[in-house]
Specification:
The protein is an alpha/beta fold. It has 9 helices and 10 strands. The strands form 3 sheets. Strands 4-5-6-1-7-8 form a 6-stranded mixed β-sheet, sandwiched between helices. Strands 2-3 form a two-stranded antiparallel ribbon. Strands 9-10 form a two-stranded antiparallel sheet.
Length: 237
Amino acid sequence: MREGERWVVLGPNGSGKTTLLSVASMNLWPTTGSVEVLGERYGRTDARELRRRVGFAGSAIEGAMRPDLTPTTLIMTARHGAFEPWWHVYEDTDRVRARELGARMGLADHLDQPFGTLSAGERRRTSIARALMPDPDILILDEPMASLDLAARELLLADLEALALESRPRAVLVVSHHLEEIPLGFGHALVLAGGRALAAGPCESVLRDDILGEAFGLALTVERHDDRWTARMRRRS
């Protein structure tokens, strides 16, 4: 990914998406090859410091959040990469930023509720606001639309579209199973299958019937209407 680019990673279950994210976020050591993140070579730099420049949000992060803590606290603790508020000292500016990020992600009316009482969409928004707390250079979102209903999905898509227009984070990567979940402003795509990349580049050249059909093992029709992508199985004649 280059500065200013917004990428989507697509592929079926077992294609390697989670493994790729784990390596890119420096939580899994590669068995072969080399990895460079923000100009630093993995293994030749302090991964703990570099991780602070990579924001990560997904269901695994949400599962580690204490249900009795509020979104404000859970967002704020990301300032030090923690989940508990007891081990670090926080300034008033940290609390203000946490509340601003929460409000920006549509949580203004829920910032003081226990996390465990939030809806799936509100939990997802908390996770994303938390990932933005350290002002990362790269933001990685692992299936941000998973388990959301239609309204929650569309509202979150609109927020991610607004985020894509901003200068920070410098690059954003979203992982998904569905073309319908690609936000506007995401202009590049990587398609994985069987642990390898089938295609990578501008969406127009990658999101094609043949490439996605090979990835998912189906005859697909890929279309684009009003800048939103869709894919459906081709009917048998």
